[in-house]
């Protein structure tokens, strides 16, 4: 993430050379990602205290995993690839396959949105670039919140249906 920030800054600012703040950006990224991982495991632990037997826990764990793999979409197509692999590995279990397909639809929708939006922000300038960046930022936080809610609810109930996703992969 630090290197990506450096590349972006070097491409946008006149007189800024790659590597001016690379270590600072890299250290900040490592600290931020570590804090995010620790907090997410802590929050998941709080909201998913188990009151049922171990066999139901194992079954539910298989159902919340594709939603958790969606977090890998912080690096846009990586989460979708992981969900496709999970879906392929669990096609024999209908509930797990359906849950993976629902999660994949949602994550693919937003991955396509973010890739298209980032490509478009490089092509436009001025007020439109700022407006599109703000819309993408709002969409990012909506995606993150929806993904976290899906993880918690699928961990607790075994399945979750997203409020928004384009139905271009699956016909239920």
Explain the layout of strands and helices.
Blueprint (H helix, E strand, L loop, with lengths): L1 H11 L9 H26 L6 H16 L6 H14 L4 H30 L3 H31 L15
Helix pairs in contact: 1-2, 3-4, 3-5, 3-6, 4-5, 5-6
Secondary-structure element series? HHHHHH
Instruction: Round the Cα radius of gyration to an integer and report it.
Output: 19 Å
Uncertain runs with pLDDT below 50, 5 residues or more?
Answer: 48-55
Treating each run of at least 4 consecutive H or I residues as one helix, how many helices? 6
Task: List how many beta strands DSSP finds.
Answer: 0
Large-scale geometry? globular
- Mean pLDDT across the residues is 75
User: Residue share in helices?
Assistant: over 70%
- How many structural domains in the coordinates? 2
């Amino acid at each position: 993430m630090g290197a990506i920030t450096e590349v972006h800054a070097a491409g946008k600012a006149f007189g800024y050379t790659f590597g001016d703040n690379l270590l600072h950006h890299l250290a900040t990224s490592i600290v931020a990602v570590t804090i995010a991982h620790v907090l997410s495991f802590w929050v998941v632990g709080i909201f998913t205290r188990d009151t049922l037997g171990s066999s139901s826990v194992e079954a539910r764990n298989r159902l919340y995993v594709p939603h958790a793999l969606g977090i890998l979409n912080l690096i846009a197509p990586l989460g979708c690839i992981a969900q496709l692999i999970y879906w392929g590995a669990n096609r024999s279990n209908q509930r797990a396959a359906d849950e993976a397909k629902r999660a994949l639809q949602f994550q693919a929708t937003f991955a396509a949105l973010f890739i298209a939006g980032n490509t478009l922000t490089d092509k436009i300038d001025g007020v439109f670039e700022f407006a599109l960046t703000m819309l993408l930022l709002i969409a990012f936080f909506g995606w993150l919140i929806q993904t976290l809610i899906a993880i918690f609810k699928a961990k607790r109930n075994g399945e979750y249906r997203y409020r928004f996703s384009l139905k271009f992969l699956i016909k239920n």
